[in-house]
Structure prediction request, 520 residues.
Amino acid sequence: MKIDPDSTADFSAQIAKAIRDAIVSGDLLVDQRLPSEAELADQFDVSRPTVREALKRLAAQSLIRTQRGATGGAFVNRLRFEEAYDQQVTTSTLLLSMNSVSFDVACEARYALERACAPLAAQRRTPDQLATMRAEIHRQSQPGLTDEAFCASDVTLHRALVDGAGNKVLSYQLAGAVEAMQPLMNMITFTARSREVIVALHTDLADALEAGDAARTDETLLKLESYTRELAHSVVTARAAKAKHQQEAKKAKPKERKTV
Amino acid sequence: MKIDPDSTADFSAQIAKAIRDAIVSGDLLVDQRLPSEAELADQFDVSRPTVREALKRLAAQSLIRTQRGATGGAFVNRLRFEEAYDQQVTTSTLLLSMNSVSFDVACEARYALERACAPLAAQRRTPDQLATMRAEIHRQSQPGLTDEAFCASDVTLHRALVDGAGNKVLSYQLAGAVEAMQPLMNMITFTARSREVIVALHTDLADALEAGDAARTDETLLKLESYTRELAHSVVTARAAKAKHQQEAKKAKPKERKTV
DNA sequence: AGACATTAATATGTATGACAAATGAAAATT
DNA sequence: AATTTTCATTTGTCATACATATTAATGTCT
Prediction:
């Protein structure tokens, strides 16, 4: 194992890549122990801090875990779905917030993916998952609920729907899409009227799933999607109108400064 | 900013988490410069190597980028879809290979997701994307193609289908699902007959997309899924039969050792 | 004055050496 | 035989130094 001193990349990045490739290619197996930091430093002909930086990079991706002590060291980590979830969610959340993804695009993606689960969920959803959905629907109908709590409950309900498909890979792939939407959803102010509509649709959704009716599930999701987009749109136009109003007021009395 | 010396987690992990939270919460904005390593070391009351390990963790997740020189430092990185793709693909690939996910489960997830794109793609696919699909279909009909090249072409074709939905979020979410399947697909040996069938189905798929026929696109994808699963199943049973045969042969002549 | 070379300052990248702390295995003791 | 002690190994952390890249300021020459 050697690295290229002329490469533009850092040594630690090159070393991390070399080890990562070895893991992905199956050269290093799960739970297998890597050489100690000192040995790696020898092999790659770099210092120990440099090796450590490389190992921390891999640890950040959950590719290895480290253990102190006599029989310790760095071990190839069995990547679990739960760990992968978390990374997916943060990555997806940042992707949406940093790339000015419109609400419509994100919403379309989310419901397209959920609808992909619908037929499977109608067929396989467990009583437990159905109960989770009913419980969340009940919570959503409570009057005192904050908008954030309402959105969080919405995410839980939709996660139950996705998990209802009984396919771990599907659940994993959709976790990001569903949860990453939450910050965008949180920007919506839910009126009593809109909550009522959403709860009704959620109830339809649970009913359709309980009946094992894939077509009705799909229809309900379509309705939910269009209603959600309507809601978001009305929020956006309301904000724009408000901003315009404030701007005109400012023009009329230019002497007044911000009192925020 | 302070860290907990009594925590079980490494200092570098704690510092990475603190900075990551600041980025995710919007406390640190895109392209904003972090304090220098020396300043961070002061603020967190740790040494510079420890700060560097934390920064390398964040760099591994593409959350920051670093630049050398007088005006250099660590900057909050705008997470691009392309970078996120790569991480998604490696993560998904490892998830599948390390958790003994069955071909059926992965295949089901993949086609469920692709079918979610189908109606959108039928409506929006660009001529360019259609041309890509046609070109790959043509390549797949070449006789000299290796199995690996055939699978790679398959991935390219399906990526074009997914991208045809014209939704970046959707494309990103599905990149992992589609590409992560390739190693599993590579295990299939394609006979001339099976390639013929697949190419025919791919042609149907392109035709349906060209006609903007969502229903036919969906049907074709369903056929492709069931055929793919049939193929995989036949491979598995063939292997099992072969293994059984070899085992019996071994039993008959126990003196023979492995000659591999 | 303007163009170019020099220097200095700042930051990351890397190396060296040291010590602390955790951990398990071997050795010593009861 | 069971328990305690010792010890070797390995990661975690620190301090310091130097190399290198990059920019800004400075100086020099035409």
